[in-house]
Specification:
Elements: H1 15-35, H2 51-56, H3 144-162, H4 167-172, E1 176-184, E2 190-196, H5 200-211, E3 220-221, E4 224-225, E5 228-236
Antiparallel strand pairs: 1-2, 1-5, 3-4
Main location: membrane
Keywords: Cell inner membrane, Cell membrane, Membrane, Protein transport, Transmembrane, Transmembrane helix, Transport
Subcellular location: Cell inner membrane
Length: 239
């Protein structure tokens, strides 16, 4: 048996109307909730209750800074009175100092001219009497050439004995030749030492070696002690 629907009994027939009505009601309630305002009860406050306390506070006095008075103006310069010079000034009489026929001429004693010794620098290779290195005195009888050879031999012996390679130069791999120039003074001491080399540390070591040289017998030219320049190379070579 087939069931038939009654058009009057259709529940979803007015569902759209109910939805619109419900939506309008919800919007009205929401609007009323947003527009709702609540006011506090009005209370009369006594605004003058703290005025006395405010008036009782001590108000600090403004300190007045006293400015020192300006310095007094400088005193007026004293008036200088010009007084005429009435005193008589004696005239200075200039005497004639020119000689004439009657002037006696004093005898002048003989004037001795002192010889001034000049500091001469005579090279080691041409000096008459070469400086004598300590230990070479026995070679003096053999002549100047024997003294020169002994001097150079003792010089190299001194360098080899006191030679010390600077550690910093070894670490840096620095090597080379340092030319040393010095002067044997008139008293046999060593002075005016100069060096020229590839490194300052090597130059310092060469200066230290030369500073250890002993005092020598000074060189002589024509029987008088003179300064004798001397130069020698010191070679620094890494093994």
């Amino acid at each position: 048996m087939e069931l038939k629907k009654n058009p009057k009994a259709d529940i979803g027939r007015n569902s759209g109307l109910f939805f619109v009505a419900g939506l309008a009601l919800v919007m009205l309630i929401t609007w009323q909730a947003l527009e709702y305002k609540k006011y506090d009860d009005v209370t009369n406050y006594d605004l003058s209750q703290n005025i006395d306390d405010m008036l009782d506070e001590e108000v600090p006095m403004t300190e007045q800074i006293k400015t020192p008075p300006p310095p007094p103006p400088p005193a007026a310069p004293e008036i200088i009175q010009v007084v005429e010079d009435e005193a008589d000034v004696p005239e200075t009489v200039m005497k004639d100092t020119e000689a004439n026929e009657e002037t006696e001429v004093a005898e002048v004693a003989e004037i001795e001219v002192a010889e001034v010794e000049e500091d001469l620098d005579i090279p080691f290779s041409v000096i008459e009497d070469v400086p004598i290195f300590p230990g070479c005195e026995s070679e003096k009888s053999k002549g100047a050439n024997a003294l020169r050879d002994c001097f150079q031999k003792m010089m190299f012996k001194h360098i080899n004995k006191n030679f010390r390679y600077p550690e910093i130069s070894q670490e840096m791999g620095v090597q080379g030749k340092v030319n040393v120039m010095f002067v044997i003074q008139k008293d046999g001491s060593i002075g005016s030492v100069r060096m020229r080399g590839p490194d300052k540390n090597l130059e310092a070591e060469a200066a230290r070696i030369i500073a250890k040289l002993p005092k020598m017998t000074p060189g002589k030219q024509r029987g008088r002690a003179v300064r004798v320049p001397f130069s020698i190379p010191i070679t620094f070579k890494l093994q």
